[in-house]
Amino acid sequence: RDVRDVRDRCDNERLAEFRDRYPMDERAFAVLERASDVVQATVVADFKPRREGEDDYSALVMTFVRAVQSRVGDSRGGGD
Prior knowledge:
By secondary structure, the protein is mainly alpha-helical. The protein is built from four helices and no strands. Helix 2 (26-34) packs parallel to helix 4 and helix 3 crosses helix 4. The longest helix has 20 residues, at 2-21.
């Protein structure tokens, strides 16, 4: 249980850092949070927008999460 707690904290910090770098709305962040660990790790590692420093990456993040989910066969967090 302690290992899981530490991993969850690390995951939360990693996602928070990703959101700081690529601002997004609550809906887009919720989709990312609900995605599997594999999808989250892939998105954080591979998301490379053409331009950095934008105010909102929500649409790009949601599209990328869904693309990764379809590649790895994970439907969690696909959208409401």
